[in-house]
Amino acid sequence: MSPHPDPHDLHPPYDPHGAHDPHDECRTVRADGELDLTTAPDFTRDLEDVRHGTGRLFLVVDLSRVTFMDGSVLDPLCAAWDDCHERRGWARVVYTRPGIGLVLRAAAVEERFPRYATARDARRGVAGGPLKAYNAAGDPST
After folding, report:
1. Residue 133: DSSP 8-state
2. How far does Cα 141 stand from its chain's mean position?
3. pTM, to two decimals
4. What's the gap between Cα 108 and its chain centre?
């Protein structure tokens, strides 16, 4: 996991409410592998570390390399979203695996965390289309 500003971001974060403030900063947290009860504390710490300071906060949570996620990460994700919104910013989640979408849908936070296909899309505010639909058993829906 990497709680640092994205050094590859050559573009300012998308700001739908006005001009870009040069003091704003888009920060990225990346996770790899499994996010579950054993890894949630590290993930929580990373999400908290990037939210230090004051002022507007734009946060990309990149879960594109997460192979499994359970509900243990929902509280820290929602806390980060709340903090960003209180600070007139946003928190956006990147994911490509349908299992993550199922967890978000089951927790009724799918609208809070629409899917972004890449970190670049998240920074720009370009939400991804829906993933292929899967049922609760993880099988493709017909």
Report:
1. P
2. 25
3. 0.76
4. 15
